[in-house]
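Sample A.
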Amino acid sequence: MGLTIGAVAAVLCGLGMTVAAAYSGVQRRRFRRVARRAEGTIVEMAKAGSGEWPVVTFDAEGKVVRFRSNFRRSDHRVGGRVQVLYDPAHVDGATMVENFELRGYVAGFGAGGLALLGIGIFMAVYLAPMNAACNRAAEDFLGAVRAGDTAAVGELTAPGERLDEALLRGPVRASRDFDSDSGSLGIDTGCVNGKLDSGTYVYIRLRRVEGAWKVARIATADPDCESDGD
């Protein structure tokens, strides 16, 4: 469930970032097509948040326009000259040329969104189903032990592995439920950890054999599974 939620969150966040970057790029191209250039003057360094930001005035075809820029450099000073881009139909949206030309953050935002989207898809298509199959194999194994189905237990046990018979015949056989609360997943190995309703906490280590998850070890202590689950 955790991987599924993570996959959905990654896909939604990645999609949102990608769409936002694409929208910003379209808006910038539209602005560039109609924008005009003018020379502006820094008339004030206005304090806001953690720093000071240049307040610029410029002449837009006879109209004096004043705006506070959200871009600053260390050498910006009152009286300094800067280049301004503005839309004649919406002069309030003016921006400094230096700010407009900094496209890296838009591209970076879009690239980050695509990367997050790819990670989410990978988790949803590959990791989440594999994790579900690993957990299901552990549950099936415990169910077979409870039912005394030795054939099924043998089928669900990894080849060449000898399991703790005392644990299987005692706490596992006596249990009716298993509450998984942690685990880990690798390419061909996994751990499913949790508490039997008989009160015993167990670590179930699994291995993929020919595409199917098989139990390789079940124990009340397993350093590898314990560290993976932390």
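Sample B.
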Amino acid sequence: MEEEIFHKPMEHPNHLCYMFKSGKVTLEQLKDLVREPMYICKWCGRVAEKSDNLCAATSIQKGSCGM
């Protein structure tokens, strides 16, 4: 299952890990994506407002358990 989640090459450019490492976005642009976090990546611990910006997103809302 982990390989299935991680290997989404068409979606990877939208992931925070890729955007940060590629240097194609500014720190200010990244801040906009994490300002109101709703999800956390199970692999790296990064947080984001949208699950599409993480490789293995799980909700961090109170009462949810995605781990």
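B remarks: The CA atoms of residues 11 and 52 lie 8 Å apart. The chain has a mean pLDDT of 82.
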